[in-house]
Write a structure and sequence with these properties.
Largest sheet: 6 strands, mixed
Number of domains: 1
Bound molecules: zinc ion
Number of strands: 6
CATH architecture: 3-Layer(aba) Sandwich
Shape: globular
Length: about 200
Amino acid sequence: MDTTNTTNLYEELSLVPAVKLLTDIDLSDGLAAGSISYAVLVCCSGMGLSLPYVCRDENARILTFQSFGHKCSYSAIAELLANDLVSNLIVYGHSNCEFTRFLQKAREQGSSEEQLLRQWDPSACEEVESGQIWRFFTGDNWLLMNELQVLAELKAVLQYPNVLARAESGKLSLHGWMYHEKIRKLQVYHPGVGRFDWV
Ligand SMILES: [Zn+2]
């Protein structure tokens, strides 16, 4: 594991003021009180339709993007985040992600992860690369890989100037969540300490 790079990503995002701690309670309360006007949630389809810890109030303004391995189009999400309506982005990962297993399998077969991913879904590769995932992957720590995937996506959307401008003006906050299936618990990225913490 290249600890230099991974340490950098955890620390790098802790230095971005727009990346903030947000618990599931904060999300529900914020939506109810109106301090969160509109939340965008990006998560993996492997988590199923009933997303744990996400506010289920039918009036809550949450727009969910769900695709296998989080490979949503960054450009489309960035366009949405540049809109004045959206106040919060949550990238929601999970500990038992088949997408990560896919990357592990590629490694075991001796192929480059990128090569196999291109065969599997050519359109996904560019987006995953833009999240700078490849340089972190060693295949020996799925949970770390999943966490890095969440952080890399947060970083990726901040590369878009119109998203960065809204984030820097304080109108957009970004958050990272990680769901642990086996114990059914949630961790959230805590910029103050530069890691995922239990809520
Ligand atoms: Zn998944």
